[in-house]
Design brief:
By secondary structure, the chain is an alpha/beta fold. The protein contains ten helices and eight strands. The chain has one domain (3-216): Aldolase class I (TIM Barrel), CATH 3.20.20. Helices cover 44% and strands 16% of the residues. Helix 2 links the parallel strand 1 and strand 2.
């Protein structure tokens, strides 16, 4: 098993960027996140030009390789292919997984593909569609997804019982409420603000990682 397959199999902390401008400090922030314990960093932005995303993504790819961690891209199979990302994350309104896989295959790339889900029905559908993993949320209210109603921790329990592929929970999770999602059965946590808006990104990632490991090792 290659180190990347091992890393994906065992990932616990998934850090998602929310780039709103041509931030020159993104690379430093990502480096601190990886150092603190993030297994995966996802390049995500709804406002930045493709040129900027390619530049930022190239920095993240280089940092991920340096630390032996994984790099995923949100929404965009073309950017994921161009940046030689390890994975691609799709939303409910994005292209079907089969189409994304075909594009990757034509480009000679094999990427892990995940899909966001907001209900048990969507989770089951994504698994049937061939997702390598799913995102479940938003668990709590979050300004990152203002139009989505929080699904609550009960959905975690349902997904854990019904889904066989890995799932990562997301949405308003931070050090103050992470115990609620862990108690509900989550073992993989994705965050945006709890890492990238923290005053000390390294310390925030390290604390979240420790909380996950302390709970799952019981």
């Amino acid at each position: 098993m290659t180190w990347k397959k091992e890393a994906f199999k065992n990932f616990k902390l998934y850090a998602v960027t929310n780039i709103t401008g041509p931030e020159t400090s993104v690379a430093r922030k990502v480096q601190r996140a990886y150092l603190g314990g993030a297994d995966i960093v996802q390049l995500r932005s709804k406002n930045v030009s493709d040129r900027s995303l390619l530049k930022i993504g190239a920095f993240i790819r280089e940092i991920a390789d340096g630390y032996g961690r994984l790099f995923f891209v949100n929404d965009r199979p073309d950017l994921a292919i161009a940046l030689k990302a390890d994975g691609l994350h799709l939303g409910q309104d994005d292209m079907p997984i089969a189409v994304a896989r075909r594009l990757c295959r034509l480009a000679g790339r094999r990427l892990w593909i995940g899909k966001s889900t907001h209900s048990l029905a969507q989770a089951l559908a994504a698994e049937k569609e061939g997702a390598d993993y799913i995102g479940v949320g938003p668990i709590f209210g979050t300004p990152t997804k203002p139009d989505y109603k929080p699904v609550g921790v009960e959905l975690i329990r349902q997904v854990k019982c019904k889904i066989k592929i890995p799932f990562v929970v997301i949405g308003g999770i931070d050090e103050t409420n992470i115990h609620n999602v862990l108690e509900a059965g989550a073992t993989r946590i994705a965050v945006v603000r709890a890492i990238f808006q923290a005053r000390d990104i390294y310390a925030a990632a390290k604390k979240l990682r420790r909380q996950i490991e302390d709970y799952t090792s019981r």
